[in-house]
Specification:
The chain is α/β, with parallel strands linked by helices. The protein contains eleven helices and 13 strands. Helix 5 packs antiparallel against helix 6 and helix 9 runs parallel beside helix 10.
């Protein structure tokens, strides 16, 4: 009988609920602080509520889960029969979530492997799925980690935002880069690079930026088997149009997910976000 390996991630993976249930993946929620109230992402605040608060320029911040929340997730996995846990999280360059998971892992009742995937959103979600599939096939924690790291190594994430102000306020992009975008009245295209959010290109209009996003994603996807996720915040029409064009352009497309990001990522990107994750199989 193979050992049971439990897969834990965090709420910024934005995996569909039915997918998490099918593969037995647990997501530990990050926290969104709106004014003087704290909410758990995915359960207590919607992306739409967050977008409305941002549009009214309300104060919105985010925070990592506490080590105690991770400890409870690891205990629950052990009580459900897991012999080990693989805990996969968003980039440590973006959040302290990975550090909180490491602290909790020290006293867990079963061995816990904590992995900084360097990813976020469905780029993280695809890594968690790869780990879960490896475990389901009888793999041990090393196999699950290797599968996640292999998926991460091939995965790319790109996104368009209407303004860099939200990323600047949250300290996720340099003030100089944000100022450059504002001063030139350009629309930024960004990419996840070594776990950090970096300005990739500057385009003059939103429509040209999203057309360029399509070009980049189609080129990166190539012809081999590939999964793509299209994310947005309060921009469903933009996201659906991009998804339809990618369906027509990517011959090796296996799965395409379209979803609104949660409140944590939304707090740092602002309404109007359109992003795409390209993850070769």
């Amino acid at each position: 009988m193979s050992r049971h390996v439990a897969i834990v991630t965090d709420s910024t993976a934005y995996l569909p609920r039915q997918t998490m249930e099918r593969h037995g993946i647990t997501a530990v929620p990050l926290t969104v602080v709106l004014g003087d109230q704290s909410f758990e992402e995915g359960t207590e605040i919607s992306a739409r509520s967050l977008a409305a608060a941002l549009q009214k320029r309300h104060s919105v911040t985010t925070s990592r889960p506490s080590p105690e929340v991770f400890a409870a997730a690891y205990r629950a996995a052990a009580e459900a029969g897991a012999d080990g846990v693989v805990s996969l999280h968003l980039s440590a360059e973006i959040s302290g979530t990975y550090d909180a998971a490491l602290l909790a892992a020290k006293d867990a009742p079963v061995p816990v492997r904590v992995v900084d995937t360097g990813m976020v959103a469905m780029a993280l979600g695809f890594c968690a799925l790869a780990a879960a599939e490896a475990a389901e096939q009888g793999g041990d924690p090393d196999d699950a980690v290797a599968a996640a790291e292999k998926r991460a190594a091939g995965t790319s994430a790109y996104f368009y935002v209407d303004t860099l102000d939200y990323l600047r306020r949250g300290g996720r992009i340099g003030a100089a880069q944000a100022l450059l975008g504002s001063a030139l009245a350009v629309k930024p295209l960004l990419a996840l690079d070594d776990g950090r959010i970096e300005l990739r290109e500057k385009v003059r209009t939103a429509s040209k930026a999203i057309a360029r996003l399509e070009e980049i994603v189609a080129e990166r996807a190539g012809t081999g088997p590939v999964d793509i996720a299209v994310h947005h915040l309060a921009a469903p029409d933009r996201a659906e149009r991009l998804a339809e064009r990618l369906r027509a352009r990517v011959p090796g497309l296996v799965e395409l997910h379209v979803s609104e990001v949660g409140a944590v990522i939304g707090a740092h990107t602002g309404p109007g976000l359109v992003g795409a994750v390209v993850s070769p199989r």
